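Researcher: Structure for this, please.
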Amino acid sequence: MSGPEFTETELKLALLEWRDYDRLVRHLDVPEAHFTQYNSYLDDADRSLRKAQVMLRAREIKFPVGAAKGLGKPPVTITAKRRKSAIGGVFISEEREQVMSYDDWTDFECGKTPLETTGHVFQWVAEQASHGPLSVIGRVTNHRWKMRSGPFVLEIDKTHFPDGTIECEIECETILPEEARTHIAGLLKSLNIAFREQTRGKFARFLEKAEGIKGYEE
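Model: Predicted structure, C-alpha cell format:
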C-alpha cells in the first residue's frame, strides 16, 4: 500500500444550537490558535472516489490579520481519508496527507494548470479507485478554535456549508476518548450547552447538503 498510513481517533460532539460556540469559546478564554479553513473536496465527474468511500480534500488555512506575520503562504494540505468506524461519537479513520504549495493549488483552482497528482496520497487514491480527471466538487468554510481544557486540546469548529447552514461541533483527537467525553460533557453541562454525539463527518454532511447524497459513511 502506498505511503505512510495514520490512524486517527477523534471524539466528536455536536452542539444542538451552533450559536452556543461563542459562550464556550469565551469561557475557555485565550485560544492556542484561531484560524479559518477552506476545505475543497475533489472527485471526478462520475464520483468514483465517493463510490469507493474515499474522501479527498485540499485544505487552505488563513489566519486573522496580523496573527501570522512572517509565515508567508501556508502550504495546502491534501488529505485522503476513509472511515473505519464511528461509534458513540468516536471516529476512527485511515488517513494520509501530503502538502502542495499554495501557488500550485491556486493555479489549479483558477484553471491555469492541471492538478499535480504526484505523491503518495494521490497514488493511494488511484489504488483504491480508478478515476478520471479530478476537480473541485464543492467547498465548506470552517472557523476553528484550538483551546485547552484540562488535559485535552479541543477543536471547536463552526462550519458553513454550501446550502447556507451552519453547524458547530467539538473535536478532540485523543487515545483516551472516553475520558475526553466525560470531561467535555461535564464542561458543556456546566455551561447549560445542549449537545449530542456526532454521527457523521463533515464530508458526509457536505454530500447531503450539496449533492443530496444520503447514507454516505466516511
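Researcher: Any notable elements?
Model: The radius of gyration is 18 Å. Residues 53 and 214 are 13 Å apart (CA to CA).
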